[in-house]
Structure formats: structure tokens, C-alpha cells
Amino acid sequence: MKTSYVLGMLVILALMVPPTSEASDIIPMEDFFRNPEKSAFQLSPSGDLLSFLKPWESRMNIFVQRIGSDEEVRVTSSTDRDIPAYFWSGEGRLVYLRDKGGDENYHLFSVNADGTGERELTPFDGVRASIIDRLEERDDEIMIGLNRRDPRLFDVYRLNIVTGALALIEENPGDIAGWMTDHDGKLRVAIKSDGVNSSLLYRDREDQPFRTLLTTNFRESVIPLYFTPDNKKLYVSSNLGRDKQAIFLFDPATAKNEELIFEHPDVDVQSLFYSKKRKIVTGTAYETDRVHYHFFDEERGELQKELESRLPGFQVAVVSMNKEEDKVLAWAGHDRTRGAYYFYDLGSKEFRKLASLSPWLPTEKMGFMKPVAYQARDGLTIHGYLTLPPGVREAKNLPVVINPHGGPWGRDSWGYNPEVQFLANRGLAVLQMNFRSSTGYGRAFWEAGFKQWGRAMQDDITDGVQWLIDQGIADPKRIGIYGASYGGYAVLAGLAFTPDLYACGVDYVGVSNIFTLLETLPPYWELGRQMMYEQIGDPVKDKELLRAVSPVFHADKIRAPLFVAQGANDPRVKKAESDQIVEALRKRGIDVEYMVKENEGHGFHNEENRFDFYRAMERFFAEHLGSRSGTE
Predict the structure, then answer these.
(1) What is the mean pLDDT of residues 339-362?
(2) For residues 102-130, average pLDDT
(3) How far apart are CA 511 and CA 553, in angstroms?
(4) Is 294 a catalytic residue?
(5) Edge-to-edge strand order for the sheet containing 85-88?
(6) Which one is catalytic: 155, 459, 463, 570?
(7) Is the pTM higher than 0.85?
(8) Architecture of 364-625 per CATH?
(9) Active site residue 485
(10) Which of 219, 274, 344, 616 is deepest in the core (most CB within 10 A)?
(11) Percentage of the chain modeled with pLDDT above 70
(12) 570 is catalytic
């Protein structure tokens, strides 16, 4: 099928918005950004207990209830931060992570399923804990990484979650970026890095030294996913000698990819589903316009069909199973709803809804997110998503917000996005694009963005704006740009390097000075420094390049109003990044609104801080783009 035909069809589909009798009503800002009613459901190993996160004192805490009962027991009492992640460790105990003020130095805690016996397991200031293996066959132990000895490196420990005792398994020699266990919980694989080259290390037994199987430049990879059931070979995602990553069987004895398990011609394939009970790989997922599944196992495929038949029109994902794999928790959602969780018993065929995440949001008043594609100036195809305001009958001359994603080594995906829906509800069209260097589209697309911050990567964003104008969708005088992290950098770069293109911009924890960004990387990112130099630029060898694309040095070109938001404890993009650009602009008399939250890091997680930020954003866009406001 010809590319021009495909692009044309995507454009047509993007503009086919079902008509409504009138424009949607204004929905309160808080309804988009308040904590969900319940979320992060998990089944206990037996499947008799159900856990989830639920607001208490405006913070997401863990609750537990017995299947079939309506009685809920709150088992944690966090009042300063949401609990971002947790899991069951045995039938009667849960383990969770929490940081302080957004510093991302996550500490581990454990608590009994009845709420008793809570204890901090890693009470070390300035130390970050990571989970290596939950050791599901051992109720009292987990395997963790700690950078306690050296903030740059993670050593491996077995942690007794009852006593808090730590037993060192492997000390990081100074160059290990990742670890992996086999199905018996033995530490068998390590990823070694010098910042540019990566080596896959392997050992047959935990008491042996590691040996190097192969070494590649970071542009090529062999990413271990699972051991085979006999713990002798590996399932990997690899792009050795090819553009797209695919799933292979890898033999440590020969250090080569063997059987090709699954590939897709257009996108990377990096995930694999595994049945621990039946000891087989069951399927994979890949993302084109949206997430799709491919199953190798008939039983798992039939489960997916059953769930999708019960939930037609939704994207359905299995999120948790009990140890016997006969009780299932599923999530179902799409682009206009945060979705809901469901319980399904494969034996009794009991199927029931557990909770909607945001039942107060009316699906019929949300905007449709349509996949689109356009050509960059050098001919590269850029994929993205266009969301129009609900009720718009004709996509013509609309105020628009351009919303580049963070990373930049990530991608935007189809699905519910509260920011996008909030802006659409205010009468703004929103364009998200996966500019070059976005991940998932293969090695060539990724590498096309190396050392292209503010250059070709920014051109891809600019070309998306021009595409909207050429299509007649955007009002050229009412185009704003909003982004977070790298997206925040793209906001500043857009205002500085294409000052006539945007009416205003919102920079959320964004980079203004690449030199200071690279000087202040978190210590545990140190192994990746040389790789970042190749991807972004070396502050010594590429000094002129980095100066040319750092917005702070071009603040004299910025004329459009700017709103900047920053967390004081951000470990990735330090507060100095926002301070620099705000100071440079205010010295020139440019209108800059600056919001700093002292108890936040890389993004605002506390509900009241989210409310403050989006309330200010709403006022800002209403003033500068003429969008609707909930305070009208």
C-alpha cells in the first residue's frame, strides 16, 4: 500500500468526528486530575484477597478486601506522598515503595494484609531501593538493589521482609547497569556498561563468576526477558543485525540468537508474557497506532477473547492473576475513559466489575484521539495523535496546543490522557507527535534524533504545526505549546527558535541549559553518561552545538508569554534549569509566570499541587489562546 494513500486515510480518519447536538459542557478541572476512586488492583497469591490503591487524606494508600466481601481494610497511612507502587509478598503481606518530596530515593516498607506490623525495610537516607526479583516462591524474602555503598551503583541483596535482615549476594564491581534472575530466584545475568558499549554477562550457577557472552555498542541490544523453563536459555528482545527489535530464543552456549519467536515489520517488539504455573511463554504485545496482542498459547488467547467479548469496544489487559492462574483481574479502557477493573473466575465464570477509576467523568463528553501521520521536511514519516474538542463538527481554524512528549526516548500512545481531555474540553485541539528519536519505531528512527535536540527533532514538531495549518485545522494566531521534561525543553526551544510560530508556551520541569543538565545527572545515571553524550552531545567536544540548542542562551529571541512549573526536589531536571530561563526572561521584561512546589520532584504528584498547576494552565491558555475556562 502506498505511503501517500495511508497518510491520506489517516488524515481523513482524524477528522471524522461524530457530530453532537451541541458543544460539550465545561467539566471541572478537578474532575480530570483528582485521584482515582480506586486503582492498581492486584490479587493475592491465593486469589482470595484483593488489594488496591484508594485515596485517604488526599493520598493514595493500600486497601485490602476479601473477594466477595464489601468490607475494606486500609493497611497504610501515608499522608505526605502517594504510594506509587506495591506488590504482594506471600499471602499475608504487602511491600510498597515511597519517596520523600519527589526525591526518587525510594524506600521499601512492608505491612501485613490486616494493617498490622508495618515497618520500614530500607531506612537509609539518600539511598534508592529497586526491586530485582519479588521471589514469589519465598514468602519472606525479596531481592533488591541498593546504592548504599556507592550512590552511582546498585549492589544486590536478599532482604528478609519479616526481620529486615539484608544479605549481600553480589557487589557491583563498578560497571553493572542491570541484573536478572532465573526462575529459581538465582542471580544469573548481568548487563555491563562502559557508557557506550554494553556486555551481556552470564553464569550457570549463582556461586560462579560471571562470563561475558557478547559485547555490542548501545545502538544494538540483546535484552534478556525470561529464562526458558529449564533455566538454560534466554528469551530476548534483540535488534542485532536488524532495524526493529524482535523476540528471539538466545543460547548462552553459542552467544547467538536462535529461533525467531515474533517480529513486526513496522515497530519494535520488546515484551513477552509468561505463565509461571504452566511454564510457557504465552504471547507478546506490540504498539503501532495502539497496543495489539499476539498469542502463541491457545489457552491465553482464548482468555483474551473471552474478556474482550464481555467488554466490547474496549482495550482489555490482564493486570493480575493468582498463583493458580484461575482468577484474573482485567482492566478495560479506551481513549475517552480512564477505564475500570473487572474480576473473572475461570472456573465458575463469575465476572463482575470492581471499580471505575474516574466514574465522575462522562465518556460521551470526551474527545476522540485519532492516529495521524505527516511528512517531516526531510521526508521522514512522523506518527502522532490528534484530539479535537468534543462537539466540533468541522476541524477548521481551531485554537491548538502542541504537546510533545518527554524522554525524549519514549513515545506517545493511544489511550486516555487527562491532560489532553482537559484541554479538549476547554475547546483546544491537541496534537501529540512521536518525533524522531521516539522509541518503538526501530533503530534508524531512534538514531535519526541523535545530537538533534533543537534541530531535526524540533523541526519534526514545527512540521506538525505547519501540517495543522496547511490542513486548515489550526488558527495560526492561536497555537500554544505545552510539554514536560524533554517536552518542556521542546517548549522553550520552540519559543526561542521559531518565535513567530507560537502564541504562548507552558514549560513543566523542562530543560533550559543542556550543560547544567549533564552536570547534575543523578549519580545512579553515571553509567549512562557517555551514551547520553552520543545521543545529546558532549559538553566539551560538542560545546558549540549544545550552546546553539540550549534555549537559555537564546532567551533574547523569546517573545511569547511563558508559564514555568518546577518541583524543588527534582533529581533529574534540577530547579536551576527553570530558574535560569525565568531569570533570563524577566531581565528582559518578558511575561513569565513561575510556579515552584517545595514538596515535589519531577512532576507534581500530590493532588493539591496538580490542582494548582492545571488551574494556572487553564487561566494561561484562556488568556493567550482564547480557550474556555471553568471559571467563566
Answers:
(1) 97
(2) 96
(3) 12
(4) no
(5) 85-88, 93-98, 107-112, 119-120
(6) 570
(7) yes
(8) 3-Layer(aba) Sandwich (3.40)
(9) yes
(10) 344
(11) 96
(12) yes
